[in-house]
Amino acid sequence: MSLEAALLSVGWQPITEADYTALWFFVDYEWGSPPSATSLHHTVPAPYTTAFLSSNQRLVATDGGSPDLLKPLLQHVQPHVRLGERVVCVAQQPKRRGSAAGVAAAAADALVVTTVTDTGAVRTYTAETVIVTASLGVLASGSIRFMPPLPEDKARALAIHQWMAQYEVVIAEFPYAFWAAHFPPGRTCMLYAGTPRMLLHDLSGYYGRPILEFHLAGDTAVRVSKQPLEQTKEKLMGILRAMYGEQDTPDAIRVHCTQWNSNPLTQGAFSVRPLGMTDAEHAALMRPCCNGRLHFAGDGLHPVHSGYMHAAYLSGLATADAVAAKWAMAAPIDAALVTTEPLRTSEGQLMVGTSA
Questions:
Q1: d(CA 247, CA 181)
Q2: Which of 23, 91, 278, 284 has a CA 20 to 30 Å removed from the CA of 231?
Q3: According to the model, what pLDDT value does residue 308 have?
Q4: How big is the CA angle at 43 (ends 154 and 301), to the nearest 5 degrees?
Q5: What is the CATH number of the domain that holds 302?
Q6: How far apart are CA 283 and CA 222, in angstroms?
Q7: CB 129 within 8 A of CB 147
Q8: pLDDT tens track for 54-96
Q9: Taking residues 240-265, what's their average pLDDT?
């Protein structure tokens, strides 16, 4: 049942602009989808996150944003991270068989990951096990080709649902905080009830600079992610000047848009549990394939906290533990098949038909 249908079933529907704005705040802003497309079952009630994080929650602000939180986790793997490469294909192929001490080795199939660099060069990485952490939006888009194709239940679940939130944030810095006197005392957020509806967030107190955030959802977010930044700036400045006056509203010095919905590496802002999704479909997305060698992890692939940043972390831990447990029980690998390099790579020309 959708949230819209649930509200109608108890006799409530928005009438005033205040009603519509409150509904936008509790649904569109929170879940990145309108009430008609937001699942009651998967969103209300949602006590698990509060219980997991405790009721004493705090907003964490750092100059470097989320990367500052991730740096301690990355310090041991950073040397092996390849930037500027886009994965285009994950293929299972028979591994070359070898022998050690004259004993024939029966090696399992290997997984070959093909990437394309920013300069157009093609590289391949061969591994015993692969963990795919691309967003559900990227997986659903088909921009990564899997050979053999993904299992039918996994492919079907990706195809029939909208797994990613339609949400964007525009950040603008101004010469001074002309809005400060108009915000409610002690508050840093304000809802705009006009068109389009949005949440304004004053970041001046966090960063010591006059910065406003504009939170957008739904079709507006998708449109903003695709249109020229200057067009977005012009629209927002028009709204601000209507609110605060032409003379009292200076031009923004800098404007930035997240563009999550149009970014081919994200294909949406964050994962959601879509209307009509079943537990079996979500389990199919989390299930490994290719004889347990191809695993999937990410913010949308946690059984409880799906869609949150800590879900990505917990999903990664669980998947890494599963892989480690598998290899701890695996039979010894033929020494002739082992390399001292962390990754075996090759570079060449992309051939038609080898990737999508």
A1: 15
A2: 23
A3: 84
A4: 30
A5: 3.50.50.60
A6: 28
A7: no
A8: 555 555 666 777 777 778 878 888 888 888 999 999 999 876 6
A9: 94
Domain count, the chain: 1
150 found inside a domain? yes
Q: Which helix (H) or strand (E) holds 87?
A: strand 85-93
Residue 113 lies in a domain: yes
Parent domain of 312: 71-96+105-164+269-347
Q: What residues have CB less than 8 Å from 32, skipping those under 6 apart? A: 164, 165, 166, 167, 217, 218, 221, 268, 269, 270, 272
- 259: CB partners within 8 A, 6+ apart: 168, 225, 226
State how beta strands 85-93 and 145-147 pair: parallel
What mean pLDDT, rounded, does the chain reach?
84
**Predicted model pTM:** 0.81
Phi, psi dihedral angles at 120 (to 5 degrees): 95, 0
Kindly report which listed range (77-81, 137-141, 234-238, 250-254) carries the lowest average pLDDT score: 77-81
Q: Report the C-alpha gap between 299 and 114 in whole angstroms.
A: 24
**Is residue 289 in some structural domain?**
yes
Residue 152 in domain: yes
**CA torsion sign, 290 to 305 to 63 to 196?**
positive
Helix (H, G, I), strand (E, B), or coil: what is residue 42? helix
The phi and psi torsions of 240 (rounded to 5 degrees) equal: -65, -40
Quote the pLDDT of residue 122: 95
